[in-house]
């Protein structure tokens, strides 16, 4: 059940007995002015592989970057089962501690069979795998700029990165857009740089 949220004014006195008003966020209010977001679950990293191809979400025009880090995830959360509560969901990635959700070029989430799940209500309902969990894929472009790619002016101006040589862990989070006070988000997914390094070593 999604809790309702509201803002109410809470007055308190300072040590000088001057009253001031603070906005405090509370859950479970009987009269709701805004809602809490839908929790999008907790995910475990099952595998990292380096691949030459990746699926693209429907309607997204993006080049084939020629190399991707495929992140295989498992979860108790079925994203298609909560489609009534979220219009869309996106995977975002950044170097930890995750300050810019758009820093690393990222595509997903997809099902384990690479079906597009960005609009869960349009996707085929997911079923539990034999291990009892739901499985997802996320694809990250390993560096910016990639060779032999013609970038737009705005994309070309973005800060460069290289997740293989950077040395930092990567953080991934699923987000659903909306105007909720408490956003619809997953728990943070952390990938150690040791695992990233091993994935590239296995691909070479």
Offer a quick outline of the entry.
By secondary structure, this protein is mainly β. Helix content is 9%, strand content 36%.
Question: Key terms for this structure?
Answer:
204 residues, mainly beta, 2 domains, four-stranded antiparallel β-sheet, 3 helices, 9% helix, globular, disordered N terminus
Overall structural domain count: 2
Q: How are strands sequenced across the largest beta sheet?
A: 4-5-8-7
Helix content: under 10%
Order of helices and strands: EEEEEEEEEHEHEEEH
Number of helices: 3
Tell me the total number of β-strands. Answer: 13
Molecular shape: globular
Largest sheet: 4 strands, antiparallel
The stretches of 5 or more residues where confidence is low (pLDDT under 50) are: 1-33
Structural class: mainly beta
Straight-line N-to-C gap: 47 Å
Description of the structure:
It contains 3 helices and 13 strands. It has 2 domains: 4-35, no CATH class; 43-203, no CATH class. Residues 1-33 have low confidence and may be disordered. The chain has a 4-stranded antiparallel β-sheet with strand order 4-5-8-7. Strands 6, 11, 12 and 13 form a 4-stranded antiparallel β-sheet that branches. The chain is mainly beta and 204 residues long. It has helices at 153-156, 163-166, 193-203; strands spanning 4-13, 19-27, 34-35, 43-51, 68-75, 90-95, 106-111, 134-140, 143-144, 161-162, 170-176, 184-185, 189-191.
